[in-house]
C-alpha cells in the first residue's frame, strides 16, 4: 500500500497562480486532479499540475467555471499509476451518476505495470476518501452493479476492441472524405463486448467532433491523431443513431446517453423509429443486428400497419421481401452492424442467409471485424462453445472453468435458495428460464407460472429494466428481459420444451411445451416453416444466451429427468 494525500483548493485565477510556487510537486511530479462543481466533474492526470490547471482556466476551456480542485499526491506515484487512477475514477464517476463526467473517453486505459496490485489498495482508500467528501453517492459495489457503469462509454477497451474501433474510424473517415457510402460488420459471440464497442465509438465520434485545442490529449491515447489533422471537421455535425431492437436494453442505454455529454437519449432508436423518421442519418450503428426482423406477423396490429407504411414510404411499395435491415440501409449513408447469429431467438429474425450475405459483403470491402475474447463470463473464451455443444448434442468435452462458480442442481428449490444467497452477497443474481412454462400470471396476478413439485415462481412482472426492478429477485426472467445485460449470477431453468429422446439418443423439442407463440409460428408470407430442426436451433440459442449472463457464476436445473441425467455427465463434471 502506498501513502497519499488529497489537497483541496478553490478553482480561481488567484489560487491557481499561487499553486505554482507553493509546492515542487505541483510543477514536477505525477498527480491526479479533480475539478468539480455541484453538477459536473473532470478528472485528469499530469506531471505539471500548475501548468495544466492554468490551461483549464483559459476562457476557451469547457472546465473554466468549475468551483473546486482536488490534487491527489502520493510519494510513490508514477505516470502509470496516475493513468490507472485517473481511468478508474472516470469510470466510477460515470457509473455513480451524481455528476456529469466532462472527460472525453479516449484516454481511459487498463494497462498493467509494475506493482499494480499494491497501488490498488491505495486507490480503494482514495475512493473512500472522496466518497466521504460527498463526491460519490454510491459504494463501489453499488456502482459496479449499475447499468450506468456497465453500459458506460468510459470503458478501457481490450487490444482487440481498440483495433476494431481504430479500423472502423480509419474506414469511416476515409469514406466521409471521399463521400462514399459504407457498411461494416462487428461479429462476436455473447460477452465479447460488442455493445460496449458501439457505445464507446459513438462517444468518441462526438468528442472528436467537438475537439478543441485547450484540453490536449495525452500521447498514450491510441486515438490522439483523430482529434487533429482535419478529423474533427469530418466528424462535425454527423447525424448518428444507435439502433437497439430489444426494448429493455434500449431503455437502459437511453438513460446512459441522457447523462453523457455529447450524447442524447434521442440518439437511441428502435428500428421502427428509424423507419418512421423524416431524418436521413449519416451513420446508424445497430446492436444485436440478428434481432432485426423480416416480414412476419408482428406483436400487434399497429406494428403490422407500421411495417407496411414504412415499406411504402422508403421503397414506394409494400413488398414482403423487404426487411428491417433494408430500412437501416435506406435511411443511412454508413452502417455498422453488430452481429452474432448464435443469438437469434425467434423465427422472425432476419434469416441466416441474410446474415451470411451481410458478413460476406463486409469482408469483401475489408470492413469485417471479429471480436473473439470473452469479456463477460469469467470462465474464459471456451465457455460459450462448451455450453452450446452440450445443449446441441448432450455431449461436450471437459473444461477447466477456473474460479467460475458453475453448479448443477437436482432441485429448483435448492437452486433458488443458492441464488438468493448470491443476491444477498453480490447482488444482481437472478433466476432465468426458457419458454417451457405458460405465462398465467399475465391474466391472473395470483397465479404461478413455473410450478415444479414444491417449487413455484412467476415470470417477470415487467419487460423493461426488469433486472433492476424491486420484484426481480423474486421472479423469473425471460430471454427478452436479459439479452444484452450482465448479471453476477444466473440461475437457469432449462424447461420441459427440451427433452432427451432415449430411442433416438438425442435432445429434442416438444413443440407443445414451448409457449412463446412468436417463437414457433410459421411465416406463410415468406413460405417459411419453423420445423423441429429450426425450432431446436432457436431454443438452444436462447439457453446459450441465458447461460452466458452470469459474470461470476451460472447455476443450472434441468426440468426433464432424462435430459438432466444426460447433461449431468457434462455440466456436473465441470472443474470449478
Automatic annotation (TrEMBL):
Domain of life assignment: Bacteria
Pfam families (UniProt xref): SLFN-g3_helicase
Keyword Hydrolase assigned: yes
Gene Ontology molecular function: endonuclease activity
Keywords recorded for this protein, A-Z: Endonuclease, Hydrolase, Nuclease
Residue ranges of domain GIY-YIG in the record: 28-104
UniProt keyword Methyltransferase, yes or no: no
Official protein name in the record: DUF2075 family protein/predicted GIY-YIG superfamily endonuclease
Amino acid at each position: 500500500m502506498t501513502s497519499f494525500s488529497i489537497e483541496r483548493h478553490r478553482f480561481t485565477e488567484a489560487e491557481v497562480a499561487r499553486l505554482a510556487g507553493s509546492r515542487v510537486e505541483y510543477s514536477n511530479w505525477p498527480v491526479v486532479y479533480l475539478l468539480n462543481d455541484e453538477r459536473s466533474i473532470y478528472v485528469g492526470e499530469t506531471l505539471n499540475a500548475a501548468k495544466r490547471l492554468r490551461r483549464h482556466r483559459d476562457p476557451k476551456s469547457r472546465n473554466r467555471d468549475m468551483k473546486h480542485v482536488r490534487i491527489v499526491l502520493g510519494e510513490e506515484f508514477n505516470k502509470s499509476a496516475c493513468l490507472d487512477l485517473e481511468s478508474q475514477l472516470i469510470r466510477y464517476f460515470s457509473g455513480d451518476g451524481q455528476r456529469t463526467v466532462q472527460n472525453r473517453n479516449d484516454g481511459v486505459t487498463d494497462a498493467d505495470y509494475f506493482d499494480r496490485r499494491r497501488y490498488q489498495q491505495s486507490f480503494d482508500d482514495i475512493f473512500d476518501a472522496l466518497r466521504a467528501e460527498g463526491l460519490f453517492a454510491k459504494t463501489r459495489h453499488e456502482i459496479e452493479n449499475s447499468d450506468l457503469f456497465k453500459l458506460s462509454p468510459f470503458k478501457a477497451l481490450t487490444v482487440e476492441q481498440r483495433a476494431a474501433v481504430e479500423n472502423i474510424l480509419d474506414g469511416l473517415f476515409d469514406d466521409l472524405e471521399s463521400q462514399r457510402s459504407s457498411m461494416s460488420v462487428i461479429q462476436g459471440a455473447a460477452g465479447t463486448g460488442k455493445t460496449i464497442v458501439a457505445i464507446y465509438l459513438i462517444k468518441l465520434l462526438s468528442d472528436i467532433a467537438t475537439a478543441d485545442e485547450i484540453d490536449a490529449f495525452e500521447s498514450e491515447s491510441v486515438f490522439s491523431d483523430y482529434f487533429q489533422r482535419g478529423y474533427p471537421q469530418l466528424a462535425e455535425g454527423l447525424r448518428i443513431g444507435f439502433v437497439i431492437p430489444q426494448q429493455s436494453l434500449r431503455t437502459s442505454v437511453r438513460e446512459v446517453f441522457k447523462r453523457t455529454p455529447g450524447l442524447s437519449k434521442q440518439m437511441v432508436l428502435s428500428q421502427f423509429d428509424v423507419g418512421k423518421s423524416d431524418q436521413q442519418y449519416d451513420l446508424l450503428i445497430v446492436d444485436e443486428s440478428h434481432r432485426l426482423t423480416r416480414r412476419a406477423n408482428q406483436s400487434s396490429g399497429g406494428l403490422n400497419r407500421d411495417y407496411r407504411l414504412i415499406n411504402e414510404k422508403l421503397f414506394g411499395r409494400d413488398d414482403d421481401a423487404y426487411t428491417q435491415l433494408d430500412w437501416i440501409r435506406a435511411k443511412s449513408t454508413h452502417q455498422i452492424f453488430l452481429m452474432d447469429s448464435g443469438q437469434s431467438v425467434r423465427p422472425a429474425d432476419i434469416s441466416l442467409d441474410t446474415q451470411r450475405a451481410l458478413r460476406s459483403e463486409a469482408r469483401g470491402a475489408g470492413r469485417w471485424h471479429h471480436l473473439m475474447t470473452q469479456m463477460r463470463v469469467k470462465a474464459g473464451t471456451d465457455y460459450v462453445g462448451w455450453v452450446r455443444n452440450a445443449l446441441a448434442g448432450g455431449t461436450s468435452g471437459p473444461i477447466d472453468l477456473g474460479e467460475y462458480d458453475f453448479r448443477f442442481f437436482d432441485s429448483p428449490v435448492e437452486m433458488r435458495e443458492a441464488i438468493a444467497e448470491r443476491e444477498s452477497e453480490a447482488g444482481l443474481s437472478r433466476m432465468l428460464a426458457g419458454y417451457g412454462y405458460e405465462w398465467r400470471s399475465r391474466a391472473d396476478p395470483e397465479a404461478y407460472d413455473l410450478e415444479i413439485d414444491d417449487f413455484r415462481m412467476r415470470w417477470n412482472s415487467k419487460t423493461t429494466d426488469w433486472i433492476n426492478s424491486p420484484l426481480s429477485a423474486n421472479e423469473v426472467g425471460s430471454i427478452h428481459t436479459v439479452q444484452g445485460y450482465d448479471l453476477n449470477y444466473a440461475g437457469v431453468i432449462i424447461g420441459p420444451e427440451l427433452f432427451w429422446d432415449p430411442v433416438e439418443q438425442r435432445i429434442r423439442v416438444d413443440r407443445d411445451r414451448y409457449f412463446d407463440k412468436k417463437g414457433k409460428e410459421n411465416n406463410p408470407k415468406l413460405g417459411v416453416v419453423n420445423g423441429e430442426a429450426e425450432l431446436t436451433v432457436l431454443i438452444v440459442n436462447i439457453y446459450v444466451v441465458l447461460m452466458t449472463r452470469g459474470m461470476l457464476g451460472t447455476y443450472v436445473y434441468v426440468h426433464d429427468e432424462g435430459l438432466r441425467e444426460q447433461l449431468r455427465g457434462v455440466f456436473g463434471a465441470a472443474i470449478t
